[in-house]
Specification:
The complex is a heterodimer of chains A (260) and B (230). Chain A is mainly α and 260 residues long. Chain A is built from 11 helices and no strands. Helix content of chain A is 85%, strand content 0%. Chain B is an alpha/beta fold. Chain B is built from 8 helices and 9 strands. The chains are: A mainly alpha (260), B alpha/beta (230).
Chain lengths: 260, 230
């Protein structure tokens, strides 16, 4: 394994945390936090199959997530079953199968992340793809947000909500793949959702909500990685617990300042 | 003769194998106000959603080329804690800061409302913000789906006052779903009556006769002005 410095890992973490925070900001407002969380578990069987075939597990995770994204998108439009039920049925099945077929030696780090496995090449690729995710999400952000507020309003000005939703789900798939090394398949959903949920607690405008979602994603990743290194624990739980601390802080602040 | 802004011919809509609209034909010219009336479940909102391209249909819907549509939906349910200001909401349609200020004042608000969260506004205020939204981009035609649904009478009257001002001031074409026949007689130049099929079409005074109203609403209705005596 090529050794990578902590500083480089932190740099990669900043980009992954930022992308996860921004992508999560839409997920929270679309009320698909639970769907999104379960969706991330699909990465596990993808990684397992790739490992069994001696391929890159990240590629396997990405392919599985893209298939799941297209599946959600398709069934949301055509099926009478609620998406939540679909997710409950298929994605938990995927998790169960993933746990069964993932080689035991790889299972823990697939579930909870291992920053030591990040190579320089992988790190650079993750940074580049995070920038792409941020840019594409920014470009579609107005259309995406309008679809969240009212499908009728979006369609009345010529926005194809279906197309925008598909692009968004593919961005989620990419973001989850990028974060798996840091927090693992089981906890990646939390890195996407919790920073945005924290930002929503204290934001009064869309601009501040986006910025705080990104900032909380970055802070969760950076502080979590430092804590993992400091205490010699898995990075996934450390990152997620940091983000939960931010959530509780903003929740208390909301109660205190707004009197809610 | 001027080309109509919208021409609908032999429109049929089916949803889940139920026929919702059957053989609807009408046209609307520039500057006209067309009211769509009918009982609950008559297909009025479905007609609007079909005109907007949200629902598949058979028949012909012909908009004049390059037409700009402003739409105000019946329901606009927004979470009170949605982190979205009025200005940001209007910007989502692509309005410039100057245009946003103009349209928000055209619906009777001061600039200060632009920085308020849209979710904390009253239903009447949200409805006016929606009208401002519809006006951003300088549309040729406005579609209003029961603009006063769910708001009190005073706010409702204000909304109709705005509509009338807009139509006169900007020579806008308006399509309006309304249950209020008083409003239809007062503001509409044409009316289309629906009960899944087309019951009438024409100027309100001619189209909405006693027989048509009885057929539409199932009871004998008579339109009259109320007089108050102190």
């Amino acid at each position: 394994m090529i050794e990578t410095s902590l500083l480089f890992i932190l740099l990669v973490g900043i980009f992954v945390g930022g992308a996860a925070g921004f992508i999560g900001s839409f997920m929270v407002l679309k009320r698909m936090a639970l769907v999104g969380d379960a969706f991330t578990h699909v990465a596990l069987p993808g990684m397992a199959i790739a490992l069994l075939l001696h391929q890159d597990p990240m590629a396997g995770a990405f392919i599985a997530l893209v298939i799941a994204a297209i599946g959600i998108w398709y069934f949301e439009e055509t099926s009478r079953i609620y998406p939540e039920a679909l997710v409950g049925i298929f994605f938990t099945t995927a998790l169960a199968i993933g746990v069964l077929i993932t080689p035991e030696a790889e299972l823990l780090e697939a579930l909870f992340g291992n920053i030591e496995k990040i190579t320089p090449v992988e790190g650079v690729l993750v940074i580049a793809l995070s920038i792409v995710v941020l840019l594409v999400a920014y470009i579609i952000s107005k259309k995406l947000m309008l679809g969240v507020i009212s499908e009728e309003l979006a369609t009345s000005i010529g926005i194809s909500k279906r197309k925008i939703d598909l692009i968004y789900l593919l961005l989620v798939a990419t973001t989850v793949t990028l974060g798996i090394r840091f927090v693992g398949t089981l906890l990646m959903g939390a890195l996407v959702i919790i920073p945005a949920a924290s930002a929503k607690n204290i934001s009064g405008s869309l601009g501040s909500y986006y910025l705080l979602s990104i900032l909380f994603g970055v802070v969760s990743a950076v502080a979590g990685i430092n804590l993992a290194v400091l205490f010699g624990v898995a990075s996934g739980p450390a990152v997620v617990l940091t983000s939960i601390f931010l959530f509780l802080t903003t929740f208390v602040a909301k109660k205190f300042f707004r009197g809610e | 003769m001027e080309q109509p802004l919208l021409k609908v011919s032999n429109l049929f809509v089916e949803l889940e194998q139920h026929r919702i609209l059957e053989d609807i034909s009408f046209e609307v010219g520039r500057g006209e106000t067309l009211a769509v009336v009918g009982p609950n479940g008559a297909g009025k909102t479905v007609l609007f959603r079909t005109l907007l391209g949200l629902i598949p249909y058979k028949g012909k819907i012909e908009w004049i080329p390059g037409v700009k549509i402003g739409y105000v939906p019946q329901r606009f349910s927004i979470e009170p804690d949605l982190p979205l200001t009025v200005a940001e909401f209007l910007k989502l349609k692509g309005g410039s800061p100057k245009e946003i200020e103009t349209e928000i004042s055209s619906v009777g608000f001061g600039k200060e409302i632009l920085n308020q969260q849209i979710g904390v506004l009253s239903s009447g205020q949200q409805q006016r913000v929606l009208i401002a939204w519809a006006l951003v981009g300088n549309p040729d035609i406005l579609l209003f789906d029961e603009p006063t649904s769910g708001i009190d009478i005073a706010a409702g009257e204000t909304i109709y006052h705005f509509l009338h001002k807009l139509q006169v001031g900007r020579k806008l074409t308006i399509l309006l779903i309304s249950h209020d026949l008083q409003v239809v007689f007062q503001h509409a130049t044409k009316v289309i009556c629906l009960d899944r099929e087309q019951i009438c079409f024409g100027p309100p005074k001619q189209a909405l006769d006693a027989t048509t109203l009885a057929r539409l609403f199932g009871v004998e209705l008579e339109h009259h002005h109320c007089e108050h005596h102190d």
